[in-house]
Amino acid sequence: MQMKFRREVNQDDIDHVSEILESTGFFYHSEVEIARELAQENIEKGEEKSGYIFNIAEIENMPVGFTTYGKIPGTADSFDLYWIAVHKSHQGKGLGKILMAMAIEHIKMMGGRNIWIETSSRPIYEPTRQFYLKSGCELIAVLPDYYGEKDHKVIFLKKT
Amino acid sequence: MQMKFRREVNQDDIDHVSEILESTGFFYHSEVEIARELAQENIEKGEEKSGYIFNIAEIENMPVGFTTYGKIPGTADSFDLYWIAVHKSHQGKGLGKILMAMAIEHIKMMGGRNIWIETSSRPIYEPTRQFYLKSGCELIAVLPDYYGEKDHKVIFLKKT
Known about the structure:
The structure is a homodimer.
Chain A: E1 3-6, H1 11-24, H2 29-50, E2 53-59, E3 62-71, E4 78-86, H3 95-109, E5 114-120, H4 126-134, E6 138-148, E7 151-159
Parallel strand pairs in A: 4-5
Antiparallel strand pairs in A: 1-2, 2-3, 3-4, 5-7, 6-7
Helix pairs in contact in A: 1-2
């Protein structure tokens, strides 16, 4: 099995990003749209100017997972991990762990000390939250009813 | 003393926003730039499309304070209060309290239930934090070292 990772984003990746996110069944249409916009900004402005760094995982030349992260403007050394997703048909192979480790390493290399990760408290996200905890992230805060009634924002922190 | 409030933002207000923020001595240059950009977006796209609602307080036809707030995309009924500031030379007249009360009322009218407010833990912001607590905001979370070393992000919530 050939596994590749690349930071270059090309126009075809816009649809790959949608397909990967939609396959998980986790995300609202509006969220998928936002991910597409971030990829588009990366293509148009580059990863530095856009502030959205992508790392795309390919298996047999097919994009099957990705992370998106970037420096938080106005902070000294905080980064946001905006997205981490693996296509439904390629989950359980440790790809998420690899993508997470690569993001942490890259952010550390860039001088980042804090990686902030936000997710929802909805039950569907329980495996996601467990994944972050197992990846060494610390649960820092819960913002009650942030996304909607009984849908809290959960904030994790990974020190690099 | 004539006091007026208006939601219309015009090109002159870009500089008024800077002057008000700079007079307080609280904000970094980069933060003032962001506030200017939000005002510019409001002028270009309107308050609804931009997502940045301004309420500008005038005394004797001179802008002396403002709030900026807006619905948080991807949430059901959460709003961010991005800015609340009163010119140094007009502080202590209760203008901040009035602007805060108006923002809460307007957000409530638009169906908003949660108003999220972020600030820094730096000592210089102690009066700001006291202001939020006195305005009925609840301290919800502290994100350690978010802005920089020993410069935490403090998150308040005001239920409408």
